[in-house]
């Protein structure tokens, strides 16, 4: 199942040579794991609430590939270039399967909530 690495980044307005180097080298760390950018450097449109900075979304064939990329020597070497210059959080999350219907999730959650109350 497709998995995503999502980063919420702050203090992204003043890139420097380390950030440029990170950006120039990151794709080569993603390629062996089938990673590709889905969102990067896009202008945000705040609809509800205030978003504190930028967002990056990278897709992978599955969560194992995402972990393989993040744990790879090549990416571990780049991490300090990002963390010395940008604050933020990074998460991995699996996508939903083809044909996903949120009403089935609601039914499961309703049943679980009913068991918890009983």
TrEMBL record:
<dbReference type="InterPro" id="IPR011008">
    <property type="entry name" value="Dimeric_a/b-barrel"/>
</dbReference>
<protein>
    <submittedName>
        <fullName>DUF1330 domain-containing protein</fullName>
    </submittedName>
</protein>
<dbReference type="Pfam" id="PF07045">
    <property type="entry name" value="DUF1330"/>
</dbReference>
<feature type="domain" description="DUF1330">
    <location>
        <begin position="2"/>
        <end position="96"/>
    </location>
</feature>
<dbReference type="InterPro" id="IPR010753">
    <property type="entry name" value="DUF1330"/>
</dbReference>
């Amino acid at each position: 199942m497709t998995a995503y690495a999502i980063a919420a980044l702050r203090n992204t307005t003043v890139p420097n040579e380390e950030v440029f180097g990170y950006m120039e080298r990151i794709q080569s760390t993603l390629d062996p794991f089938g990673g590709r950018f889905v969102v990067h450097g896009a202008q945000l449109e705040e609809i509800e609430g205030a978003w504190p900075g930028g967002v990056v979304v990278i897709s992978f064939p599955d969560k194992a590939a995402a972990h393989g990329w993040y744990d790879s020597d090549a990416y571990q070497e780049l991490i300090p270039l990002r963390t010395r210059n940008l604050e933020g959080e990074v998460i991995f999350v699996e996508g939903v399967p083809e044909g996903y219907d949120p009403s089935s999730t609601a039914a499961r959650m309703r049943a679980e909530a009913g068991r918890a109350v009983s």
